[in-house]
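Sharing a chain and its predicted structure for anyone who wants a worked example. Both blocks are below, sequence first, tokens second.
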Amino acid sequence: MTRHPPAALITGGASGIGRATVQRFLRDGWSVAVADLNATAGEQLMTELADVADGDRTRFVATDVCREDDVQRAVATAVESFGALDCVVNNAGVGGAFGKLTEIEVEDWDYTFEVLVRSVFLGIKHGARAMQQQGAGGSIVNTASIGGFSGGAGPQAYSAAKAAVINLGRVAAAELAVDHIRVNTVCPGVIATPLLGPAGDDARAVLQRAQPWPERGQPEDVAEVIAFLAGDAARFVTGEEVTVDGGVRAAGPRLQEAYGGDPGARGLVGVNRGSTGQAPVVRKRP
């Protein structure tokens, strides 16, 4: 990176890990464009950040990360607002479809892959184009999950989608290295975000049965790793996955067991739309 201050676009930036990453980048002197589907949460964040960063360093762009024109517009807004784009954090996510594979609705499966995989592809495509035009390199950080490494660490559709994100990061890193664009992936475990929901008892069960580290993961724990991967300190790091999970993978994925078992095995099917402001669907099998 040669520009000062550097500029970033962070999707899903209005809540959870994205929100913590926005705050971390601003403290480091970055200019940040926040893209999120939830316009109410995004505008609220802009109001809260008014005391932290002047208006010249923040922008909010209401964005459906599944739509190419929305992602293209978000990238263009960052470039036009800050003069260039040095980093894209593809962080937007939802819990997605859950239930037995034989019972998940195809539209819920497609929705999961659109939000979790298509959005990352679009962020890489248009973010990398902007960086290539600038000719100064840059970095892309994707948010996956430990669910992408094996079964038993998340719902089926979610885990399959996150596995695709992990592989896409490797493919993009190999292709874009010639342009000095680094691509890396963070893989969180159980983190206290709106995506997890009000998980008091559930979180305690995870700590007791699946996670060796005795404290609950916070969005700031992941934001610190994203900030490292985004900056010059990681100039020779690309095509990597960094797990941020309190030792869950080291101990073996037992998250669904800790949460009471696979939702499908408990007779539940539906789709979790996370913090998008859209209602989830939960059905009980007859």
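Comments welcome. The radius of gyration is 18 Å.
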